[in-house]
Design a protein that fits this description.
alpha/beta, Rossmann fold, five-stranded parallel sheet
Length: about 280
């Protein structure tokens, strides 16, 4: 059993534990937030004996649990013998942490009079945990993107999954899909609705597809759309985005939007993206 299958993430409040845990969740880890230290060995036993159907675990622990400081050193030795787990510790300077709490306006869990007081007290109490860590990551000068890039480099064997793209064709008369990240309007393209032989057909049928794709406006639009997505998608991946929803609309969602969405799917598949396609209004 490799050590990277059972990770424990600890660190100072505001140092990036949530970002790191979500990063591993996107890699397929089952994320557990703030499980009491006393319960971790029982959880490990269930995991080892297949009582829970979980392949990999990223468990976040922190000072919010009252007995954490007392119990965790003993618990860590016990679970390390059982599973060879890895402990990651997130750190940052006092100044960086105070600034982050000031920007988010969230209270520090140990602050009574001031945030800086809470940060210094937590640092002192967590020093023994930090000394036990396999990896100490200082996030002082890191953006979220840089932190994810660092994790990707250190866990190269756990390559991030490809961007999951959902394509939705829709009709504006029924409303824009609420889950959309990007929305493209195809209502300026020639409309098969006004061709009697095509009106009752859908954009998945050859006659409609040939009509829409044969138009000069469609060819120019698709060329620019591909160029735009070629630029945009790598930036989304670099930023750490895992899911992207692209919606393509026309008036009724039956003809033009369907053709364009189908064409985009074919193109993005060639770009080695994972694609799902949903024609929301094609049969209305």
């Amino acid at each position: 059993m490799t050590r990277d299958k059972f990770l424990i993430i600890a660190g100072l409040s505001g140092s990036g534990k949530t970002v790191v845990s979500h990063f591993f969740e996107d890699l397929g880890y089952y994320r557990v937030d703030n499980l009491p230290a006393k319960l971790i060995p029982s959880f490990v036993d269930l995991w080892l004996h297949g009582k829970v159907e979980i392949g990999k675990v990223a468990l976040v622990v922190d000072i919010r649990e009252p007995s954490f400081l007392k119990e965790f050193p003993r618990v860590w030795k016990e679970i390390r013998r059982k599973v060879g787990a890895r402990l990651l510790f997130l750190d940052a300077t006092d100044e960086a942490l105070v600034k982050r709490f000031s920007e988010t306006r969230r209270p520090h869990p140990l602050a009574r009079k001031s945030v800086v007081e809470g940060v210094r007290l937590e640092r002192k109490r967590l020093a023994p945990i930090k000394n036990m860590a396999d990896e100490v990551i200082d996030t002082t000068r890191m953006s979220i993107v840089q932190l994810k890039e660092l994790l990707g480099g250190r866990f190269a064997a756990r390559r991030a999954p490809r961007l999951q793209i959902t394509l939705i064709s829709f009709g504006y008369k029924y409303g824009i899909p609420l889950e959309s990240d990007l929305v493209f309007d195809t209502r300026f393209l020639p409309n098969p609705f006004y061709v009697e032989s095509l009106r009752e057909k859908s954009g998945r049928q050859r006659g409609v597809r040939d009509f829409v794709l044969g138009a000069a406006e469609t060819k120019a639009f698709l060329a620019k759309l591909r160029e735009f997505l070629d630029f945009l998608i790598p930036h989304f991946v670099r930023e750490g985005k895992s899911y992207l929803t692209i919606s393509v609309g026309c008036t009724g969602g039956k003809h033009r939007s369907v053709v364009v969405a189908e064409t985009l799917r074919e193109y993005l598949r060639r770009q080695k993206c994972d694609i799902k396609l949903y024609h929301r209004d094609m049969f209305k």
